[in-house]
Design a protein that fits this description.
- The protein has helices at about 1-10, 15-20, 25-35, 70-80, 85-95, 105-120, 140-150, 175-190, 205-220, 225-245, 250-255, 260-270, 280-300, 315-335.
- The chain is mainly α.
- It folds into 2 domains: about 1-130 and about 225-280, no CATH class; about 175-225 and about 280-335, no CATH class.
- Helix 4 (about 70-80) packs across helix 10, helix 4 (about 70-80) packs antiparallel against helix 13 and helix 8 (about 175-190) crosses helix 14 (about 315-335).
- The longest helix has 20 residues, at about 280-300.
- The protein starts with a helix and ends in an 18-residue tail after the last helix.
Length: about 350
């Protein structure tokens, strides 16, 4: 979401530009992106709305056509790095003292925007307002959404465990089905060039697994259920992901410059005595490919056996995404998805 905004802005300083907008502009951007997903709402997104007469006009570019944000599985992967807890400590230190040093002007803007967007109740009526007396803990709301959609919760952090509602109607079988789908896709990948002998690729089984996964995921989305929760979870994690994707102002002021999101997050974690998850690098690497792959499954296109070979056809992005997910998810879980077929659909609450 915010990373897509940086790409839309373009240029070497696009990421830094995102953090310099006024909070009201960023709120308006989120509202307009939401509206663009629904053609009936596009009429309301043609011009920015102002929260009050004294707020500035919005100068943020917005896509000209309907757009989708990342799948909820993206937010799950980024959250699993431990980035939210680490930056919770960063903002606490920066707003309550100077232990981490004096933040310069651009970092002060970043802190203001981060606090206004993700630590204060959103404006009344905002589409991403999923915080209330019924759901006072926004982190617990995200964990509830992950559990309902995927039957999983992010790995526990060193901070207090998250107490959240584990709804009975949750996709506890998702992980087993998804891993079997990946194993079958891997068989297709390694046999793509097989021109002699028996080819064990089972196109029909892959299509059937895609069907079961789509039905499972769509069951949780009926009538827009979890749409707002997904939207705000992805927005939150996209902001934090963009923050460590380059040597942003807050990264520089924390003296955590480095060559990758994982290494920057690790150095920031050292400053606040909380290290990221041991597989944070893999979570960062798998977040976008997994989001694209799961979103493709949800479209239903992979239930057509004519489309299944795209998963293992050289040169296709979905093949690259599938290989990336297989590699990094194997490392994260310790389960070798290249080892062959399994039949049991197990449930794992954390990975």
């Amino acid at each position: 979401m915010f990373r897509q905004l940086a790409r839309l802005i373009g240029g070497d300083n696009a990421g830094a530009m995102v953090f310099t907008y006024h909070p009201s502009e960023l709120v308006d951007y989120l509202e307009r992106v939401w509206a663009l997903r629904n053609e009936r709402l596009q009429i309301y997104s043609q011009s920015p709305s102002k929260l009050s007469p004294i707020e500035p006009d919005s100068s943020i570019p917005v896509p000209a056509a309907p757009t989708n944000w990342h799948h909820l599985i993206y937010a799950f992967a980024i959250e699993s790095t431990g980035i939210y807890e680490i930056f919770s400590r960063v903002i606490h230190e920066c707003l309550n003292g100077e232990r981490l040093g004096i933040m310069l002007a651009q970092s002060q803007q970043w802190l203001r925007n981060y606090e206004d967007l993700f630590y204060k109740p959103p404006p009344y009526g905002a589409i991403f307002n999923v915080e209330s007396r019924v759901r006072p803990d926004i982190k617990a709301t995200r964990f509830n959404a992950y559990y309902r959609m995927f039957g999983m919760e992010p790995p526990p952090s060193e901070d207090a465990p998250v107490e959240f509602v584990k709804a009975p109607a949750s996709n506890l079988a998702f992980l087993g089905l998804f891993e079997e789908f990946l194993r079958e896709a891997w068989i297709g990948i390694i046999n793509e060039q097989n021109t002699s002998g028996t080819n064990p690729t089972d196109v029909d089984k892959i299509a059937e697994l895609a069907l079961l996964l789509r039905q499972m995921l769509r069951a949780r989305r009926q009538f827009g259920t979890l749409a707002r929760e997904e939207f705000f979870a992805v927005a939150t994690m996209s902001w934090l992901h963009l923050t460590v994707e380059f040597n942003s102002s807050i990264v520089e002021d924390l003296r955590a410059e480095d060559e990758s999101p994982y290494r920057r997050l690790s150095r920031i974690g050292e400053k606040v005595n909380l290290l990221p998850h041991k597989n944070a690098h893999n979570y960062f690497e798998v977040a976008e490919p997994m989001a694209r792959l799961v979103a493709e499954i949800e479209t239903g296109r992979l239930e057509d056996t004519n489309n299944v070979p795209g998963l293992y056809t050289s040169g296709r992005r979905i093949r690259r995404d599938t290989m990336s997910v297989i590699t990094h998810w194997s490392i994260i879980t310790g389960r070798d998805l290249k080892a062959g077929r399994v039949t049991a659909y197990g449930h794992t609450s954390t990975v």
